[in-house]
Amino acid sequence: MAKKSVASLQTGSKRLTKAIKMVKSPKTGAYTFVESIMAPEAVSDFLKKK
């Protein structure tokens, strides 16, 4: 399963990161992308989760 974190975003005083994870579907075997915008501290937990 390939994973990567992409952009750093800044809105006002908060610093946010957009993380994109590639997830393989158990039914078809096709890959889909899951995107989320979160605090930089939460990125590693997001990428570890299956």
Percentage beta strand: over 45%
Distance between the termini: 9 Å
* Strand arrangement across the biggest beta sheet: 1-2-3
Which outline best applies? elongated
Tally of DSSP β-strands: 3
Category from helices, strands and their pairing: mainly beta
Q: Averaging pLDDT over every residue, what do you get?
A: 81
Query: Helical content, roughly?
Result: 10-25%
Tally of separate helices: 1
Following the backbone from N to C, one meets helices and strands in this order, namely EEEH
Q: How would a crystallographer describe the biggest sheet?
A: 3 strands, antiparallel
**Unreliable segments (pLDDT under 50, ≥5 consecutive)?**
none
Radius of gyration, CA atoms, in whole angstroms? 12 Å
Task: Give a summary of the structure in a few sentences.
The chain has 50 residues and is mainly beta. It is built from one helix and three strands. Strand 2 (14-24) and strand 3 (31-38) form a beta hairpin.
Outline the structure in words.
The protein has 50 residues and is mainly beta. Helix content is 12%, strand content 56%. The protein has one helix and three strands, in the order E-E-E-H. A three-stranded antiparallel sheet has the order 1-2-3. Strand 2 (14-24) and strand 3 (31-38) form a beta hairpin. The radius of gyration is 12 Å and the shape is elongated. The mean pLDDT is 81.
Question: Which helices and strands, and how do they pair?
Answer:
Layout: E1 3-11, E2 14-24, E3 31-38, H1 43-48
Antiparallel strand pairs: 1-2, 2-3
